[in-house]
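Hey team,

Sharing the DUF2911 domain-containing protein run so nobody has to redo it. Sequence (168 residues) first:
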Amino acid sequence: MKQLKTAILLFVALLATNIQAQEKPKSPAETATGKIGNATVTINYGAPSVRDREIWGKLVPYGEVWRAGANEATTFETNQDLTIEGQKLPAGKYSFFIIPEKDNSATVIFNKTSKQWGAYDYKQSDDQLRVKVKGVSEKEKTEKLTYKVNAKGFSLTWDKLTIPVSAK
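Structure output:
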């Protein structure tokens, strides 16, 4: 009888572990990569979904530094120097932050401390580059936060907003 109880407990524990292991994270890790000129650019980020939440101005407050994704700070890596919105960004790996504004403009930040959890330890004194960009309102909602890299730069799209950043 004791062996049967032990076997049942073991089975239940294994079943619970298997169910937990199959649960998908709400903000899975994603990677966007591509070429801007001769540079290879890689953006690593946690990709949250809207899930019926108010994103801009609520979940992501206006006027505050945001990690530009979920979980760990988003990272932006380039193997060659780039010109971002007319300003030089040296080759390297950076944490990437955004300060969104009510008028859909945003300050885009490349911070020299590439390994950070969220924006909790963010220090402006570690910024390599800050540029101001204008967001674009979209008619259709993008449920999951998505980055795209193309020959003219990169963009972040989430909910009904795209934040494009020109680069060469």
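The chain has one domain: 27-166.

Ping me if you want the raw files.
A.
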